[in-house]
Amino acid sequence: MNLRRLLYYLSVSVGMAMSSSCFFVAATLSHEVRQFWIVAALAVGMLLCLNAAHSIGTMARRFPGATGIRTYLRRGLGETPSIFAVYLLFALIACFMALECQVLGDALSRYVGVDISGSVFLIVIPVAMAINLFGLSLPRIAQVVTTLLLIGGIVVIAVAALAASPQAAAASSADFPGFDHALAGVGLSIFLFMGFEWVVPTALGKEDYDGRIQRSMVAAIVTLAVMYTLFSFAYDAASSASGTPPQFELANLAFGRFGNETALVLTILATATTLNAGFIGTTRLVYGLAREGVLPARLSRISLSTMVPYAAVIAVGVWSMFGSALLLVGTLKETIAVVCAFLYACLYAMFIVCELRLRRLNGVPAGAAYQASKYATALLFLIFGIGALSAGSFLLHMSFIAAVFLACALCTRYAERNLAKRAVVLQRG
Amino acid sequence: MLQVLEQFRDRLNSHPDRGRLLKKWNPDIEIRARDRLGSYVLAFAGDRLSSIRDGISDKPHVVRIEADELTLKAVFSGALSPTQAYFDGTLSVLADDSDQVRLDALAYALWEAA
User: Fold this and answer.
1) Helix, coil or strand: residue A66
2) pLDDT, position A267
């Protein structure tokens, strides 16, 4: 029973982090840093995320069942940073959905031989909306099976591609890629791990917050690190720079004429394990925030027959489609990926600082070494997050970030005014 | 605490939208005050809150709510919004998404929609 639960949490944590976008980002990582330095970049990213997981797990124990980004940050850092972080998350969701649909579209285009990558979101997002509007859900075992298939499939194609690749035999330590590329490499690795903490609200019992959730996040991060190392290493050794989606390149090298089918199945599995669960989580967050007053109240409308917050579902769907439509404007795939990595690095840094503050506020002292290492980790997240922006056009990425931050700041201001108005109305009432 | 829960039961069972709000929803809600020993179980059956008893539930469909006694009394008397308490971290609700939404809908119908 305990092992089954742990396996379920592990599969949720891995499944939420391992999206089809990760194939694209893992390949981008191997363009920034090569061979041994891939392992180094992923190892640093893994250590940073393990630190973040420890902070998040500690806060989950303190606030079992809570919505982390709202509750933890509000209690630890205050109202304004919490609301700002929520809007950062919404910006991230739009970017992520866009990237996910684009990568899935690239895979489908590769398979059918016709470029449909720009229009896949017109089907995928409405399907996700329909699933949520009807309140459909799969049994827990489906999550475990799909994630295990995904992990197994990626490991198999990576190992088989390495074995089949003539360049792999000659692979040895590459020269140091330079600080800018090294920073970008670690920054991109944050993208590959992001989402592992979405397992926290799925706990089936309060006792799971005492250790099982945290252990599952640690196991998930280590599993992801091993998987991505194999994949990126294999891609670095085997890549023909043909513009083929990386999972197709490796799968074709590994399985020959069944390669395309294998790669397509893996891409669909990766999308399936992330997209709908992310959609559900975001919808519930939107509903709760609308009830609270941080978002417009009309987004809290629910169907009394199905108990589905349909207004939130539609809002999240429309928002995701807006993000996806932006990608049609230009080749912004890499920009979206590095922006996601940076935004998530900011969120992880906030979580870490928040945990330290909560300890102080609640009178639980943290040792000097503990504090120093946590603050250092938060700072490193920001440094590597900025480093990720240097993969490609730094100026373009910074402009994007500035626009996102400005929009989030304005939305935060709106939300605070709304909350203040509600407080006055409730007092008068 | 028991008195507050009984008033909650009476208010809920006399609400005009009770049938729609509780249709085919038959969990046990286990309520535990962190600063006191013991817990209460609210049993739902037949589209109404059928009973309140001491103890814990062994039903497969259980919603667990936990907070300090003051917060629980405020939430179940309508003095404090459960959404507010939940996001504040003072109220812990362990339930699946649809149950959480339903609980919130109940609170809204009982105290905010009037």
Assistant:
1) coil
2) 95
